[in-house]
Write a structure and sequence with these properties.
Length: about 250
């Protein structure tokens, strides 16, 4: 069954008022009045809807059934991603949502090539949030992960506070991600975890030192150095697998 997004404010009693972008998509698919489709509102609810027709230029539908999705991981995994060049961030965000990441923190690091400032930053975040919504449509998640405002590395550490966090660091040659998870995380009751991934140039020694002093663990993915757009997705997959959320 085709699946679309509906803003909660566009639901009035048992009628949905479909926004223009989704209405165009419905038309492209040649769906018409009487067809049944699924909608989700980003808060966990999903709706089986029978398309009705156009009312004052707005496509409407009648809710047949309301339910709650059960596809969210118990572990809240937050991806703190050093901002990458070009369309790499788009891919990272899209795929991390598909895997099961609960929120994305775009981070400007010391070695970041891309610098977002002024009006560029909120516009880019808005674009990334749109990508998360589209990814949820595809992977059947009913809760849309939030893309946080762009922040610098030290602001990120303030956000983390005393919550558990793991930083992937290419110069860490003693502790693997898997061993770290089983030693410090898997057997605990913690339901939140930050995963820190550096930009193309990696984290600077100062960033690693300050993070370590705060209690952030460093770990390695092995002897091969992965690109930033690969490392976060691999690490997130490993973490969610070890927590029983994948596979």
């Amino acid at each position: 069954m085709h699946r679309f997004f509906i803003s909660p404010e566009n639901i009035k009693e048992n009628i949905v008022y479909i926004d223009p972008e989704e209405a165009r998509h419905i038309e492209v698919l040649r769906l018409t009045a009487g067809d049944t489709v699924m909608f989700f509102d980003g808060t966990g609810r999903e709706y089986q809807v029978r398309l009705e027709g156009w009312e004052s230029g707005i496509l409407t539908g009648q809710i047949i059934h309301t339910g709650f999705g059960e596809s969210e991981p118990a572990l809240k995994l937050y991806l703190a991603q050093g901002i990458a060049k070009g369309d790499k961030m788009d891919t990272i965000i899209q795929k991390s949502v598909e895997i099961g990441v609960s929120a994305i923190y775009p981070v400007s690091c010391e070695r970041s090539v891309v610098r977002l400032s002024g009006e560029k930053a909120p516009k880019r975040v808005q674009r990334w949030q749109s990508i998360t919504r589209e990814a949820c449509k595809q992977c059947r998640r009913n809760l849309i992960p939030q893309v946080m405002p762009v922040m610098d590395f030290f602001t990120l550490l303030e956000k983390i506070g005393d919550k558990p966090a793991i930083m992937l660091y290419e110069n860490e040659d003693k502790i693997s991600l898997k061993s770290l998870l089983h030693k410090h995380f898997i057997e605990t009751d913690g339901q939140e975890l930050f995963l820190l991934i550096g930009p193309e140039g990696g984290f600077s020694p100062q960033e690693v030192e300050v993070a370590s002093q705060q209690g952030v663990y460093t770990a390695s993915l092995g002897p091969r150095i992965l690109r930033t757009e690969t490392a976060g997705l691999v690490a997130a997959s490993i973490i969610l697998y070890e927590y029983g959320e994948l596979g």
